[in-house]
């Protein structure tokens, strides 16, 4: 399988460095699905299914649409959903069609269109979009394409500008230690990446179709760089970043803050790539304070 994937993506990537980057970050992002697998059972029990959409919904008030990351689940935002649904907001977390659309529609632009269609389906005029990692990138691209649907934007550990570790050597199949190191790198405390999590990452990394689509999405994330678009985007934006994020390092947050003309940057110490998971209480407090500050 590794040889097939190697030939496929080397033929379609501009350089071997990009290919190595895509494969490496597949094994970083895949951790999200494992991290809160038990909590996801609770959210699945209350999911709504309407038409082609499956989503979690709670609370009443101004709509906050939450977008999960590449391998992230709705459960990654369980604390956020529970908190803001009691603060005068309607929380909606749709399942993004990460692995269910054709390869031609497996990209950031197509996912942003899916989100817009979902917002229209729900009958919302304008919404606050919140996203982590790839979800942040989709939210940004949505804000670029459909500014008329935006009230505000919250991003954390977002892709869209730069991601770390471009050009590492190609990992050998079965390199368990390598995958363990990458799993630990997602979090500030490496102990969060238990053997159970690493075992599941190791297993999922060998799912051929998920691997192909994950690499396709990661390639799309690089292709849809937002640097030239951000200065033209004036939606109020809250940037919440883990000070110890090694996937999208602190300088990425600084660059987002510099390029987005109407943005405010907040740091969370002793926190990695998934602030809403690792430091949920601090994350929720910061976000609520910002919402009040900008009157949303």
Descriptive report:
The chain has 296 residues and is α/β, with parallel strands linked by helices. Helix content is 46%, strand content 16%. The chain contains 13 helices and 8 strands. Strands 1-2-4-3-5-6-7-8 form an 8-stranded mixed β-sheet, with helices on both faces. The model is unreliable at 1-41 and 164-172 (pLDDT under 50).
Question: Main traits of this protein?
Answer:
eight-stranded mixed β-sheet, 46% helix, 296 residues, alpha/beta, single chain
Concise summary:
With 296 residues, the chain is α/β, with parallel strands linked by helices. Helix content is 46%, strand content 16%. The protein is built from 13 helices and 8 strands.
The number of E-state strands comes to: 8
Largest sheet: 8 strands, mixed
* H/I helix tally: 13
Distance N terminus to C terminus?
49 Å
Question: What is the CA-based Rg, rounded?
Answer: 18 Å
Low-pLDDT segments, ≥5 res: 1-41, 164-172
| Strand percent estimate | 15-25%
The average pLDDT score comes to 81
Helical residues, percent: 40-55%
The gross shape turns out to be: globular
Helix/strand/pairing category: alpha/beta
Strand order of the largest sheet: 1-2-4-3-5-6-7-8
